[in-house]
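Deliverable D5.2: sample structural annotation.
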Amino acid sequence: MTSYQAWRVTQQDDGSFKGSEQTLDTDDLPHKDDSNGVLIRVSHSSLNYKDALSASGNKGVTRKFPHTPGIDAVGTTVQDNTPVLITGYNLGMNTDGGYGEYIRVPPGWIATQPFAQPRVAMIYGTAGLTAGLCVQKLLQMGADPSQGPVAVTGATGAVGSVAVELLSKLGFDVVAISGKAGAQKDALLHLGAKQVVGRDALDTTKKPMLKPLFANAVDTVGGSPLAELLKQIQPGGSVACCGLVAGMGLETTVLPFILRGVNLLGVDSVEIPLAQKQAVWEKLAGEWACPKTEASAVDIGRHQLDDYLKAFLKGESSGKKIVLDHSLTEGATSDAKSNL
């Protein structure tokens, strides 16, 4: 039995939801009666849109409250102090997550932590893993810089910004597409984008096909922008799709697929086999490292979570990688500074 601190969300009498720091006990963590449950001491977590939804009481993400969000976690096993990394599966959704100093999870969720520092793992987190998986799928389909420019939609977001830097690092000419193209143009160019355009580049049109401008693309938004993007992909090109912020629906025709042989590639970063996650983590810790993304990260403590999660829901994060450091307490300072 070990007491620990966690940022926990509780439903109030008026039906609203409120997060606060609470003292909990490891005996109350899930999988206690599971002989394979692994108790992990968490050093860092990260902030994701799913975490913000869970913190707001969204029952589509988290069914039961009180609950500790945090879909990402890095730390060490209590039993033998092995460095580990956990993202996805049910962590932080319906299993108490990384916003607590301890978690207990099945061994099948646990990857080996390959980064030199645990904090760096959480700079990438689920968003960085998703970006890496998108790029990997494009490469597996034969994407090559010589084929032409690659588009990234939602380029200022957590996934899109990593995709921009990673694709640029691999030699691709990246066209960053964003609704914040004006305010964030310099930031996107700094990450390596060759061109930055507004979301009006993907305004809805009635034409079933458009001029093929992009060899390949990473789409993080879904909806009508994805439908318009498919019309602009060169013959044989691919679009790796991983998001739905612009909508779950996809109104398109078969023409991009049967006249140009365009490939629409779905990317899941949550439930895929652990070995696939591990392979991308190894690359992000090595040849795929994105130093500009790493340098821009913001470190916060649990006492700051409420403000930052609300900013996520308002769309004010602008791709900043925000790392929760459990060692930072109220009154302590971090070298990283926020622009919120």
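Annotation notes: The CA atoms of residues 237 and 312 lie 33 Å apart. The chain has a mean pLDDT of 93.
The annotation will be released with the project's public dataset once the embargo ends.
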